[in-house]
Amino acid sequence: MTDAVFTLHRGRTPLLLSLPHVGTHIPDALRPRYVDRALQVEDTDWHLERLYAFALDLGVSVLVPQISRYVVDLNRPPENAPMYPGANNTELCPSRFFTGEPLYRPGQGPDDAEVARRVQQWWCPYHDALQGELQRLRAEHGHAVLFDGHSIKSELPWLFEGQLWDLNLGTVDGRSCAPSLREALSQVLAGQHRYTHVVDGRFKGGHITRRYGRPDEGIHAVQLEMCWRCYMHEAPPFDWDEPRASAAQPLLRQLVQAMLAFRP
Question: Starting from the edge strand earliest in sequence, which strands make up the sheet with 15-18, in order?
C-alpha cells in the first residue's frame, strides 16, 4: 500500500515495524524557507529501511514515511507537548537542528495555522495507517506488537550529556508492553557484549510508543533508539558502513524474533 505520505508493507505476523523518521522529503514550496544546511536533512534516521530489510522476509509489516521530520515530526503528539520535560526537545514542527541552531530563515517558521495544516496533510495519514494496521493485526492474531525503530548521532550535547548508549530500548518504564516482552528483549541485549545498552534510559519511548502501547488492550509497543555508529558513518554524507551494519543486523534480528515469539 503506497500513497504520497507513506508506504505500508502488510505482513503475515502480529508485528508492525514503524520507521517514522526515515523520510527525507521537503516539499519544493517549503524549501526556500529553510536555511541551506537544513536541506541536507541531517537529523534523519538514516538507512533504517535497509538495516531492517530482513524483517520483510520474516513476515513483519513495515510502515515507512516519505516526509522529513523537519516538516512534521510523526513521533510527536499533535498538541505539541514536550516528550521529555526538563530537557531540550524538538517540536511537532521542529524549529531547530539537534545541535540547537535554527532550521528556518528569520521569520520563516510555520505559524499555528500552518502547523495544523501539516498535521492534517502528513501526520494524520501516517497515524491512520499505523492504527489501522495494528487493529488488523490484533484482529487476525489476537494481539499486536509495535516496534518503533529510530537512530541518532551518538553525541548531541543540546539533547543529552556525554555519549549515548549504543542501543536504547524504551517501554515507557514498562507501561507500553507486557513485562514478559520487556524482559525477553532485555535478555537479548544482555546476552551480547559488542554494544552498550540501556532499558528505559534517556529515551523511554516517543509519542508512538506511548500512544499505541496498550498491553491491556492487546497492543504492545517498544522503541529502539540506536546510535548511528553501530551501522553507519556519523559525519556527512552519513554513508552506510557495511561491516558495522552486517555486525549489527544479527542482534536486531534476534530482537525482532523475540517480538515474533512473544505471546501475551
Answer: 6-9, 61-65, 15-18, 144-152, 219-227, 167-170, 197-199
